[in-house]
């Protein structure tokens, strides 16, 4: 009597580093219930390849040559709302994670944890679970508990990062210098920054600002 064998979980990877792609492919190849169906190196390739392969789980880097991984996730999910996409990145900032999750990612895995956690994460995501590292989940909760940087504060912070004075920021945004000063004070408090330069550094580390 033949024994029923379930179909393997199909996986697609998106990353522009060939050596890392090879490493992930090796991890997947060692598991009989996983099967790599495609590898893309850009966001545009990822969208096209997803249409062709329709993988069960997609592993997506956030830093791609042509667009952000979050934008690629959003593009795929716009066509395929049921797509199960896991961010696979070195970026630990809660700003990066928030954008990816808002775009439709259902998992977030750091590249340093690939050997230990990739296989279990793929299986869990395929099974309908969500996977976010605890440290990142805590940061996301904290950022949503009243201490999140507002859109206007991000506008101010972008201009601060370019070295603009309060007066120049006020002119650029059409607000008063006193209002800019209030925004800067709020930013320093929320980011627990010592000064403007420290605030910019923290915002870059957390992914609130991008270079």
Characterize the structure shown.
The chain is of the alpha/beta class and 211 residues long. Helix content is 53%, strand content 12%. The chain contains ten helices and five strands. It has a five-stranded parallel beta sheet with strand order 2-1-3-4-5, sandwiched between helices. The longest helix is centred in the C-terminal third of the chain and has 15 residues, at 177-191. The mean pLDDT is 88.
Low-confidence stretches: none
Tell me, what's the shape?
Answer: elongated
**H/E order of the elements?**
EHEHEHEHEHHHHHH
Mean pLDDT across residues: 88
Question: Strand order within the widest sheet?
Answer: 2-1-3-4-5
Number of strands: 5
- Judged by helices, strands and strand pairing, the structural class is alpha/beta
Radius of gyration, CA atoms, in whole angstroms: 20 Å
Say what oligomer this is.
Answer: single chain
Q: Supply the number of helical segments.
A: 10
Please summarize the sheet with the most strands: 5 strands, parallel
Distance between the termini: 61 Å
Question: Strand-residue fraction?
Answer: 5-15%
**Helix share of residues?**
40-55%
Give a concise summary:
The chain is of the alpha/beta class. The protein is 53% helix and 12% strand.
């Amino acid at each position: 009597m033949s024994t029923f064998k379930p179909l393997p979980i199909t996986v697609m990877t998106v990353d522009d580093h060939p050596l890392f792609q090879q490493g992930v492919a090796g991890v997947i190849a060692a598991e009989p219930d996983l099967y790599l169906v495609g590898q893309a190196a850009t966001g545009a390739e990822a969208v096209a390849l997803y249409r062709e392969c329709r993988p069960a789980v997609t592993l997506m880097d956030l830093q791609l040559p042509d667009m952000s991984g979050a934008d690629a996730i959003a593009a795929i999910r716009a066509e395929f709302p049921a797509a199960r996409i896991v961010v696979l990145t070195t970026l630990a900032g809660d700003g990066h994670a928030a954008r990816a999750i808002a775009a439709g990612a259902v998992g977030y895995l750091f590249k340093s944890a690939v050997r230990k956690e990739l296989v279990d994460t793929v299986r869990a995501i395929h099974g309908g679970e969500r996977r976010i590292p605890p440290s990142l989940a805590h940061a996301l909760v904290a950022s949503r508990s009243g201490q999140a940087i507002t859109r206007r504060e991000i506008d101010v912070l972008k201009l601060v990062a370019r070295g603009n004075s309060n007066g120049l920021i006020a002119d650029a945004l059409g607000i008063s210098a006193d209002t800019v000063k209030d925004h800067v004070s709020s930013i320093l408090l929320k980011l627990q920054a010592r000064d403007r330069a420290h605030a910019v550094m923290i915002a870059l580390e957390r992914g609130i600002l991008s270079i």
